[in-house]
Design brief:
Number of domains: 3
Strand order of the largest sheet: 8-7-9-6-10-11-12
Distance between the termini: 58 Å
Strand content: 15-25%
Number of strands: 21
Low-confidence stretches: none
Radius of gyration: 22 Å
Number of helices: 15
Structural class: alpha/beta
Mean pLDDT: 95
CATH topology of the largest domain: UDP-N-acetylmuramoyl-L-alanine:D-glutamate ligase
Helix content: 25-40%
Length: about 450
């Protein structure tokens, strides 16, 4: 599939992070862009400033005159724009197909997949390439703090993209370099079992182009066996891998360590906190060496990385209370962020968690219970359903009950309503506290509202 040589490209559900990234790149390439969504989100505002015409709400007439329609996976088949595009005979493709077309048109491609760390690892790769003097096209699931955007059309024939396994769309991609950060049970509403998810990742590795490379975590035995069968170059990272870390020292601002590979070693100062980000950094450096960059140059660029939106992002301080926000929505992500928070000197770490998706909450509530061990107090709010409809008996209380069972005696509160949550926090926090908001929904707004309220006391 290729994009039309002229005409308007219309995006249904343009405000999503993946959809907006593709729209930004195509707009910078010179395409006329239009779109629709249910609210004027920050990505929508950005695209409007770039010249895109965006409707708030879905109307059949919006697709008239379009040469191509791109549809988000969150959009139903009976959406009036989708239906009318079919009546008009306008080609309709998925977000995944649009991303695959972009990769095919931009020369060499690096695609990052995995359960956790995709956005950070992809962003690290982009930073390394940019500080090596390259100008890549990139599409990332969060805005880079130094670049101020999550997507850009570059002049060089290399593209870096974050993939999406939640709907299987990463199986449409055929990269030159495939990076898998890790694989754990998630998105089982789509895959139905962990075994099927793992098979999906194995299929993804088989799609790497001839002469390409596969970058895998050292402990991923089954994936490594399948990767070796492809005949592609395989590089492992992490403990016992061909690229690993030596002499690591962690602090709340980041980490100092040596990256060791093929009897070479290079020092790195990483400016984001957490052991998990050191592993992400290894994956990023490994990917960059697969396209010919030296280890020394890659490590120099990595030291310039300044983080990503909503990844252990400091929102501010008021009345002696610090607020940090993170997108964590999986048990492992919650655990590693709390581990990172413990590197600080706060008196108490207060975790405020908003579960994301009813299906994930139902499937992983027990695992969430074991993830909050490094929090002094835990507050759970109700589920952010996103694309899903509520499920009977599934609420944030499942997570709160699981935490109580695993951490008896630890203060745990289930506060489903936003107004009550803010009032509870404002009256219970004290100077010296860290409030860590966690979740892939709109929980970050609570931290901002808390800072505003504390600042007016």
């Amino acid at each position: 599939m290729t994009f039309p040589e002229g005409g308007r490209i219309h995006f249904i559900g343009i405000g999503g992070v993946g959809m907006s990234a593709i729209a930004k790149v195509l707009r910078e390439r010179g395409y006329e862009i239009s779109g629709s969504d249910v609210r004027r989100s920050p990505p929508v505002v950005t695209l409007e400033a770039m010249g895109a015409r965006i409707d708030i709400g879905h109307w059949a007439a919006s697709v008239e005159g379009a040469a191509l329609v791109v549809v988000s996976s969150a959009i139903k088949k009976n959406n009036p724009e989708v239906v009318h595009a079919g009546v008009l005979g306008v080609p309709v493709i998925s977000r995944g197909e649009a991303l695959a077309a972009l990769l095919d048109e931009h020369g060499r491609s690096i695609v990052v997949a995995g359960t956790h760390g995709k956005t950070t690892t992809t962003s690290m790769i982009v930073t390394i390439l940019r500080h090596a003097g390259m100008d890549p096209t990139y599409l990332v699931g969060g805005g880079l703090n130094d670049a101020g955007t999550n997507a850009r059309y570059g002049k060089d024939a290399v593209v870096v993209a974050e993939s999406d396994e939640s709907d299987g769309s990463f199986l449409l991609l055929s990269p030159d370099v495939a990076v898998v950060t890790n694989v754990e049970p998630d998105h089982l509403d789509y895959w139905r079992s962990f075994e099927a998810l793992l098979e999906g990742f194995e299929t993804f590795l088989m799609r790497v182009r001839e002469g390409g490379s596969i970058v895998l975590p050292s402990g991923a035995t089954e994936l490594t066996e399948r990767a070796l069968e492809t005949g592609r170059n395989v590089l492992s990272f992490g403990d016992g891998g061909s690229m690993h870390v030596h002499d690591m020292k962690l602090d709340i601002e980041g980490a100092d360590f040596m990256i060791v590979s093929d009897e070479q070693s290079e020092p790195v100062r990483l400016n984001v906190a957490g052991r998990h980000n050191v592993i992400n950094a290894l994956a990023a450096v490994a990917a960059c060496t697969r396209i010919g960059m030296s280890l020394s140059r890659a490590c120099t660029g990595l030291s310039q990385f300044k983080g990503v939106e909503r990844r252990f992002q400091v929102r501010g301080s008021a009345a002696g209370v610090t607020v940090i926000d993170d997108y964590a929505h999986h048990p492992t992500e919650v655990r590693v962020n709390l581990e990172a928070a413990r590197l600080g000197t706060w008196d108490r770490v207060i975790a405020v968690f908003q579960p994301h998706l009813y299906s994930r909450t139902a499937a992983l509530a027990h695992e969430f219970g074991a993830s909050f061990g490094d929090a002094d107090r835990i507050i759970v709010t109700d589920v952010y359903g996103a694309r899903e409809v509520p499920q009977p008996g599934v609420s944030g209380k499942l997570v709160a009950d699981a935490v109580c069972a695993r951490l008896p005696g630890r203060p745990v509160a289930y506060i489903p309503h936003r107004g009550e949550l803010l009032s509870y926090l404002a009256t219970s926090v004290r100077a010296g506290d860290l409030v860590l908001t966690l979740g892939a929904g709109d929980i970050s707004a609570v931290g901002e509202e808390l800072l505003e309220r504390l600042g007016t006391k």
